[in-house]
Amino acid sequence: MIKVGAIAKTLLLASLCAVNSPVAAQKKQMVVAILEPSGDVSRMNKSSVRGTLEQFVTKSKEYRVVDRARVDQVQGELDLQRGSMMDPETAKQYGKQLGADFVCASELIKEEGYTNINVSLINSETGVVSASGSRLVEGDSPKVIADATTEIASAMLRVKK
């Protein structure tokens, strides 16, 4: 017959091993949906901004990124006209559809020889902007846009370049 004390010790030991295992020690990664940037700029600049944001979000190790094809599919289904930065209700709608904890929205505005790049990381449940960044750059060359986006993403996510 097994003693109750032996069973309790076994259960305690098993629970301690589970808590101290590498799997249990891992912090849950939040899921981020990175949307196609809005604005009247080239496809190359939009792709550069989105790719740079994906790179830094992934590099942060705190987040996982929703598959780009899935994000594009939902954007098409919702058929939202995004002439400007995303409002909190729309971010919540996207987050819910994509199963994302956060939505990363960006906007590029070209005017008088300058491009303004705005990026926001929006909590999908609350609609609150958790982090944001902006840069004004001269011109609209893909290199200048990519460099500015790198600065924004690095600062927003506290990840080294």
Report on the structure:
The chain has 161 residues and is α/β, with parallel strands linked by helices. It has a single domain, classed as TolB, N-terminal domain (Rossmann fold, 3-Layer(aba) Sandwich), CATH 3.40.50. The protein is built from six helices and five strands, in the order H-H-E-H-E-H-H-E-E-E-H. The chain has helices spanning 4-20, 22-25, 43-59, 68-78, 88-98, 142-157, and strands at residues 30-34, 63-65, 102-111, 114-123, 129-138. Strands 2-1-3-4-5 form a five-stranded mixed β-sheet, sandwiched between helices. Residues 7-25 have low confidence and may be disordered.
Compile the SSE list and pairings:
Elements: H1 4-20, H2 22-25, E1 30-34, H3 43-59, E2 63-65, H4 68-78, H5 88-98, E3 102-111, E4 114-123, E5 129-138, H6 142-157
Parallel strand pairs: 1-2, 1-3
Antiparallel strand pairs: 3-4, 4-5
- Count of distinct strands: 5
Largest sheet: 5 strands, mixed
Assign the CATH topology: Rossmann fold
The CATH superfamily bears the name TolB, N-terminal domain
Measured as a percent range, the helix fraction is: 40-55%
So how many helices? 6
- Overall SS class: alpha/beta
